[in-house]
Design a protein that fits this description.
Blueprint: H1 2-28, E1 38-41, H2 43-46, H3 52-64, H4 67-70, E2 74-76, E3 82-85, E4 91-93, H5 100-109, E5 113-118, H6 135-145, E6 149-153, H7 157-162, H8 167-188, E7 193-197, E8 215-217, H9 226-234, E9 248-250, H10 263-275, E10 280-282, H11 291-298, H12 300-306, E11 315-320, E12 323-329, E13 335-341, E14 347-351, E15 362-366, E16 371-376, E17 380-384, E18 389-395
Parallel strand pairs: 1-2, 1-10, 2-5, 5-6, 6-7, 7-8, 8-9
Antiparallel strand pairs: 3-4, 11-12, 12-13, 13-18, 14-17, 15-16, 15-18
Helix pairs in contact: 3-5, 6-8, 9-10, 10-11, 10-12
Bound molecules: alpha-D-galactopyranose.
Length: about 400
């Protein structure tokens, strides 16, 4: 009898110890991408014309423009840095990047972090060397260079998936490939943000986090046109529940400052991405920015919405033809409310805050106008410019 109670006691103590250790582990867990990653990526502006000197210039400009101090951290090198593998299978850079470790040191020396790009397939989208069959080796190389972020782009694996025999087998091949690199990154012991890029296939938002993704592209490539940006951004409706600290929906990088959209349209781009808790990865040339581009990218109140600590993605509240209302709940009980006009001409809009979840009087601030609008109860009426937005912070 005595020994039975001793057993119970011992088991109890062991269980408590396990629970305490497990809860400590959980508390320490996801510091990687606790808020949506902010930084810059080379692809949208430079594509294949990216090299060591250009990356250094972007890091310099990220600091001198004030972007670093506004929260932009990652300097991400996209496709076309890859060289050949040596006899041991170790990947090397091509001649555009003479010394990746030295470049990483330079970027780190500016108080920034550095990202790189690869594919689970044998070749990248731009036909450079991929990680297929070398996942652990590549993760180790990245960690040795001091890499902090990996964008892992399906591309070259698609040819192999096409020969898999069935959609189920192709899906499994893709998921296994993402798990393989997740494990390889974890094995390095270095915290590396893991960015999945497979264009939103197979409803990646439903399983991206389970394969270790800190973010996953939900769409094909963005371009510097309002129609494409709007198609992607407004197409994110319904995905909010899949995002949260450490795992984000990624509607692709920013085009702000690349010249293909008007200031109103870029304001829509920034506002929508902030409501969507999207990664803010600038995709322009940071070394030649006009003051208005810097202002768009560094608006502190817009960034605060994007980076809100509650980590809740916003969603569409209503759509009436080209007029859409989107809202995002924020940690202090207020909401970011975007009144979007997708029509090319100005439109009068009216928003009833009860539809956005408020009762009684609300306090409003127009964020882009940097103006408090006072308290009101009646529906709010305003005119929204063509392809534009009125972005409000609404407090009960
Ligand atoms: C794909 C990705 C882009 C970019 C290119 C590089 O198209 O979606 O974001 O990384 O590959 O080749």
């Amino acid at each position: 009898m005595k020994s039975k109670w001793t057993m119970v006691l011992v088991c109890g103590v062991i269980c408590c110890a396990v629970l305490i250790l497990a809860s400590r582990g959980a508390a320490q867990a996801p510091t990687v991408a606790a808020t949506p990653p902010m930084g810059w990526n080379s692809w949208n502006h430079f594509a294949g014309k990216i090299d060591d000197a250009t990356v250094r210039a972007q890091a310099d400009a990220m600091v001198s423009s004030g972007m670093r101090d506004a929260g932009y951290v990652y300097i991400n090198i996209d496709d076309t840095w890859e060289g050949e593998r040596d006899a041991q299978g170790v990947i090397h850079t091509n001649s555009k990047f003479p010394d990746m470790k030295a470049l990483a040191d330079y970027v780190h020396g500016k108080g920034l972090k550095i990202g790189i790009y690869s594919t689970p397939g044998p070749k990248t989208c731009a036909r450079f060397e991929g990680s297929y069959g070398h996942e652990e080796q590549d993760a180790k190389t990245y960690a040795e260079w001091g890499i902090d972020y990996l964008k892992y782009d399906l591309c070259g694996l698609r040819d192999m998936m096409n020969k898999a025999g069935s959609p189920e087998a192709a899906h499994k091949m893709m998921v296994d490939a993402y798990i393989k690199m997740r494990d390889a990154l974890r094995k390095t012991g270095r915290p590396i943000v893991y960015s999945l890029c497979q264009y939103g296939n197979d409803a990646v938002w439903q399983w991206g986090a389970s394969v270790g993704g800190n973010l996953w592209r939900t769409t094909g490539d963005i371009s510097d046109r309002y129609s494409r940006m709007a198609e992607i951004g407004f197409g994110q409706a319904g995905l909010a529940k899949y995002a949260g600290p450490g795992h984000w929906n990624d509607p692709d990088m920013l085009e702000v400052g690349n010249g293909g959209m008007s200031t109103e349209e870029y304001r829509t781009h920034m506002s929508l991405w902030a409501i969507l808790a999207a990664p803010l990865l600038a995709g322009n040339d940071l070394s030649t920015m006009k003051p208005e581009t810097v202002a768009l990218l560094t608006n502190r109140e817009v960034i605060a919405i994007d980076q809100d600590a509650a980590g809740k993605q916003g969603d569409r509240v209503s759509a009436e033809g080209p007029i859409e209302v989107w809202a995002r709940p924020l940690v202090d009980g207020s909401k970011a409310v975007g009144l979007f006009n997708r029509h090319p001409q100005p439109m009068d809009m009216q928003v009833d805050f009860r539809e956005v979840g408020f009762k009684g009087k609300v306090k409003m601030r127009d964020i882009w106008a940097a103006k408090d609008l006072g308290s009101m109860e009646a529906p709010y009426r305003t005119t929204v410019p063509g392809h534009g937005v009125v972005l409000l912070r609404v407090t009960p």
